[in-house]
Write a sequence for this structure.
């Protein structure tokens, strides 16, 4: 494969950020003699206490490893982290490792901004395939790209169905029998919805990012692939499985009217749920502890409803190795990463954050087994992993995802029919993917 | 008042750039504009004495400013213009040309952002200026009552736009939000203010008007203080009613204030998108996407520097010409007191 490097460099818009990052990186790498100094960029998509926990973990790592001095650098949201990582790579001062949103990893590979972990894995006497068996299989398509390991999964989530026990009882439904299929779900929602608007049957976030995540879930539940999991230049927005999924959304909002019209954000969903004005909601497993802390009446969780199959897309972050690090820094980063994803530490991070641990062995530890029996809702989230499907990632991920999201949001406002929406989404996505497709799948040979 | 002072400094610099006033007179001229804007008497500039052997100290004194202006203002401007002309996103297939501009004008998202921005500009500037003027007229007399009211009107200015947007996310929350709570008591059903493609831009506009009105009112208050009372009294004696006095005396004398406030308002309509970032990310379905956020999407989300640079050049060019036009139009109609 020819090396494809995007030459854009973000020079113009990022001049300032670049200079600052470069200066920061410089002070850190200036005395790389002994011990090896490495920096880890990490985002905190939720709240501040996670940043404190990360600092604590890194301190513990440093006391256990005298030959390495690791520093955790808090870099804002997932998007900000990607921005800062790119700027640092362009400035020639890449961080030793980054906790990167897993759906961005493929773009880093396409742009030639990351190194694979394979040589470090092989130094430990393992093949990449054997090493990756440590993690849940659904995490593989977002991490192992073109047969090389570019991402080491670190923290993950899937969507989950939350439902209110009181609302179910009030509507004459059995709270021990959550809806399992789309048809059951729609039936239940009709019973849960009150005509005066005081309770809705279904709500889920339709804002950018969440919208694409859940749309991919519906399409895959409907038997579809949604996008080419192995090649970043194809999406299947115009497939029957996609049309069926969008027709479901149209039915929920505009025909059965069991879901409020327009786009709701996560805030609107949870506040309606907490106020008893909502029967079922789809939300990330990452929100489990937030719901647990704020819901005053009993609630339960269940698998996402299925059409022809169960499917729950992965979300979360993986550790990547930016290009341009010295072998010493790479080796030190590898030591840190192996420590971070060791079953003990991965389990501790999982219990603290609410993300599930990508490391399968973490769940064999006594601490983790106790936690799972104390929190049956977390157990259901874990059980759903056997139906986990990969996370949408293509060339131009955010824009291509948005091509579909704009159409879904238009359906929520009854502005477009599903049949027209899938055509428009496919057309917009193809246009966005074209530069990459022309450089790869359609590139003339010879 | 510190924040007001800071904003003024920022705006002064921009006015200088947009009005085309140059180098050594620039600062002084813009200060005069500003003093005129608040109605102060300013004598015309004395002719600058230029002697050829004096250029060295001048150059030495200007050098630090020029260096930093070059590094952080003119340099980036040139790079953006250069970047907009480099076509191609992958190594080995780039060339110089206007391809980015072609792609930009063919992009329906850009057209939507430009249209949204136009609606947003009209929807924020006209109501907030009318309201600001009306409030300034109503609160121009200083007493304890108007002092309290003025403070209340100016208050939103002191809240950062990001914080205000976060606040309004909760006010607009469908069902449980403050707005829906009271509307529900009036029998209005639940409204999804930020999630409806038809309402979202209106909601964003409403916040902006709420945020900016107090700021503009300050300038109108200052301008009104400069309207000579004897002129107003004379007109009253001549039998002019309140409306006539406003139309024939107060508004013309507020010309310099308009000349300052309108370009500022135009500038705000392009450069202030914090609430879009915080509340809607340009959605739903691009309904609240504005030019600056579009540029951010291209640069930071899609890594399409060429398209982002082209959009920047077009937006800034549009902003500059609009500012210039409004500035010239208003300057032409300005009546200075002396």
């Amino acid at each position: 494969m020819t090396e494809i490097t995007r030459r854009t460099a973000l020079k113009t818009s990022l001049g300032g950020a670049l200079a600052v990052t470069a200066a920061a990186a410089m002070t850190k790498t200036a005395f790389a003699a002994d011990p090896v100094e490495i920096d880890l960029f990490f985002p905190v998509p939720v709240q501040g206490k996670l940043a404190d926990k990360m600092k604590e973990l890194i301190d513990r790592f440093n006391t256990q490893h005298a030959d390495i001095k690791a520093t955790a650098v808090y870099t804002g949201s997932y998007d900000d982290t990607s921005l800062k990582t790119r700027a640092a790579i362009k400035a020639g001062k890449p961080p030793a490792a980054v906790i990167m949103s897993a759906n961005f990893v493929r773009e880093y590979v396409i742009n030639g901004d990351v190194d694979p972990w394979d040589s470090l894995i092989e130094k430990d006497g393992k093949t990449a395939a054997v090493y990756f068996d440590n993690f849940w299989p659904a995490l593989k398509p977002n991490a192992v790209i073109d047969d090389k390991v570019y991402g080491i999964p670190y923290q993950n989530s899937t969507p989950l169905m939350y439902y209110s026990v009181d609302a179910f009882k009030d509507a004459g439904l059995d709270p021990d029998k959550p809806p399992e299929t789309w048809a059951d779900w729609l039936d239940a929602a009709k019973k849960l919805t009150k005509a005066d608007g005081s309770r809705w049957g279904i709500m889920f976030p339709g804002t950018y990012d969440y919208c694409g995540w859940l749309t991919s879930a519906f399409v895959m539940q409907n038997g579809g692939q949604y996008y080419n999991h192995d090649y970043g230049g194809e999406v299947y927005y115009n497939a029957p499985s996609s049309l069926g999924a969008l027709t479901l959304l149209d039915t929920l909002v505009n025909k059965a009217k069991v879901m409020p019209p327009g786009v709701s954000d996560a805030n609107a969903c949870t506040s309606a749920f907490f106020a008893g004005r909502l029967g079922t909601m789809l939300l990330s497993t990452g929100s489990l502890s937030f719901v647990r802390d704020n819901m005053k009446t009993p609630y339960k969780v269940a698998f996402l409803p299925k059409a022809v199959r169960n499917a729950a897309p992965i979300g979360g972050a993986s550790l990547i190795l930016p290009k341009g690090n010295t072998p010493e820094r790479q080796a030190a980063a590898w030591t840190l990463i192996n420590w971070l994803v060791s079953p003990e530490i991965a389990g501790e991070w999982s219990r603290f954050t609410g993300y599930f641990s990508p490391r399968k062995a973490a769940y064999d530890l006594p601490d983790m087994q106790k936690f799972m029996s104390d929190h049956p809702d977390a157990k259901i989230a874990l059980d759903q992993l056997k139906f986990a499907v990969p996370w949408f990632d293509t060339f131009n991920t955010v824009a291509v995802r948005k091509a579909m999201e704009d159409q879904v949001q238009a359906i929520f406002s009854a502005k477009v029919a599903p049949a027209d929406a899938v055509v428009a989404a496919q057309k917009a996505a193809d246009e966005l993917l074209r530069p990459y497709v022309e450089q790869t799948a359609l590139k003339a040979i010879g | 008042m510190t924040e007001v002072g800071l904003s003024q400094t920022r705006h002064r610099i921009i006015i200088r750039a947009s009005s085309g006033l140059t180098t050594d007179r620039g600062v002084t001229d813009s200060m005069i504009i500003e003093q005129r804007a608040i109605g102060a008497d300013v004598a015309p500039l004395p002719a600058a004495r230029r002697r050829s052997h004096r250029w060295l100290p001048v150059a030495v004194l200007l050098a630090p400013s020029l260096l930093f202006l070059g590094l952080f203002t003119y340099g980036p401007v040139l790079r953006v213009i250069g970047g907009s002309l480099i076509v191609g996103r992958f190594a080995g297939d780039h060339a110089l040309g206007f391809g980015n501009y072609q792609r930009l004008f063919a992009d329906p998202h850009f057209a939507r952002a430009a249209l949204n921005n136009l609606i947003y500009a009209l929807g924020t500037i006209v109501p907030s200026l009318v309201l600001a003027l009306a409030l300034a007229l109503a609160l121009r007399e200083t007493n304890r009552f108007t002092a309290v009211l003025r403070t209340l009107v100016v208050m939103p200015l002191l809240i950062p736009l990001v914080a205000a947007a976060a606040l309004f996310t909760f006010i607009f929350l469908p069902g449980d939000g403050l707005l829906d709570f009271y509307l529900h008591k009036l029998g209005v059903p639940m409204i999804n203010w930020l999630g409806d493609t038809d309402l979202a831009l209106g909601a964003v506009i409403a916040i902006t008007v709420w945020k900016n009105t107090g700021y503009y009112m300050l300038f109108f208050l200052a301008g009104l203080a400069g309207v000579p009372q004897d002129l107003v009294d004379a007109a009253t004696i001549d039998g002019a009613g309140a409306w006539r006095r406003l139309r024939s005396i107060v508004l013309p004398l507020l010309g310099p204030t308009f000349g300052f406030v309108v370009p500022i308002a135009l500038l705000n309509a392009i450069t202030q998108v914090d609430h879009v970032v915080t509340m809607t990310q340009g959605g739903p379905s691009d309904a609240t996407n504005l030019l600056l956020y579009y540029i951010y999407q291209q640069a930071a989300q899609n890594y399409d520097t060429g398209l982002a640079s082209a959009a920047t050049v077009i937006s800034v060019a549009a902003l500059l010409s609009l500012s210039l036009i409004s500035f010239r139009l208003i300057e032409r109609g300005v009546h200075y007191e002396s």
Q: What stands out?
A: The beta strands of chain B are 86-87, 95-96.
